[in-house]
Write a structure and sequence with these properties.
This protein is α/β, with parallel strands linked by helices. It contains eleven helices and twelve strands. Helix content is 47%, strand content 20%. An eight-stranded mixed sheet has the order 3-2-1-5-8-10-11-12. It has a two-stranded parallel ribbon with strand order 4-6. The chain has a two-stranded parallel ribbon with strand order 7-9. The model has no long low-confidence stretch (mean pLDDT 91). This is Pyrroline-5-carboxylate reductase. Keywords: Amino-acid biosynthesis, Cytoplasm, NADP, Oxidoreductase, Proline biosynthesis.
Length: 260
């Protein structure tokens, strides 16, 4: 008998995770339910993401039956209390930044909880996901979370929030860097479409390099004495770009702690 994965919420993160699972082998082991305030939005979510074969809409908008279901809480932190949760969930997974497991226990009953921080790469089974579990669900958590990317188990909930810097928010920061590189290419005379394709290929190649080398090793392998790359790196260091990135990540993590 298939287990039920109940998604509460149908935003971008729910979309990424559900599509990642639907593209993996787990689609043969689980059925998906979508719950939220607006049935029309839930229906659109299912249709737009081609989930008709494995997903249904939860019948009640505000009273959610979680009994013996694996619950994926994908709502904004302030929306957690907008629903009543009936029954004892098999397990509860929360992607809500800044919401601790103690708070989850006040709203939804279960013996097993997981606080997770995935990112939008989940849609392509390429998420970077930090997870902290309470209860005997590490094997289950590994199976589910690994279906849409790389799962890294950490020792505390605080470290899950900290991973906003390395996973949750970092795709947006990397996108800003990518946009700057595209603009740099245009400034030097490259057509925007060509610049974008070159940057995409560069990021793809860089991802493979990063699997084999540390960032410092990559820099050293490209940088030659008195060369072009070291000249550019000097400007970035002179402008404190590294420090700005670290500060941006720190502020993103700090913001998550103010959300509830």
């Amino acid at each position: 008998m298939k287990k039920t994965l109940l998604f509460v919420g149908y935003g971008s993160m729910a979309k990424a995770i559900a599509c990642g699972i639907a593209s993996s082998d787990l689609k043969t082991k689980y059925v998906i339910e979508i719950a939220g305030r607006d049935p029309k939005k839930a229906q659109n979510f299912i249709r737009e993401n081609h989930l008709e074969n494995i997903a249904t809409i939860h019948s009640n908008n505000s009273l959610i039956n979680v009994n013996e279901k694996i619950v994926m809480l994908c709502v904004k932190p302030y929306a957690l209390g907008n629903f009543q949760y009936q029954g004892n969930a098999s397990s509860v997974y929360s992607v809500m930044a800044g919401v601790d497991i103690a708070t989850l226990k006040e709203h939804i009953h279960s013996n097993h909880y997981a606080k997770v921080m995935p990112n939008v790469g989940a849609r392509y089974q390429k998420s970077s996901t930090a997870v902290c579990v309470q209860g005997d669900i590490k094997e289950e958590a590994s199976e589910i979370l690994s279906s849409f990317g790389k799962a890294v188990f950490v020792d505390s909930e605080a470290l899950v929030d900290a991973s906003i810097a390395t996973g949750g928010s970092s795709p947006a920061f990397l996108a800003l860097i990518a946009q700057a590189l595209v603009d740099a290419g245009v400034r030097e005379g490259i057509r925007r479409e060509d610049a974008l394709n070159l940057v995409r290929a560069t990021f793809d190649g860089f991802a493979h390099l990063l699997l084999e080398q540390t960032p410092d090793e990559i820099i050293s392998s490209i940088t030659s004495p008195g060369g072009t790359t070291i000249e550019g790196l000097y400007v970035l260091e002179d402008k404190a770009v590294r420090g700005a990135i670290i500060s941006a990540c720190h502020e993103a993590v700090a913001k998550s702690k103010k959300k509830h």
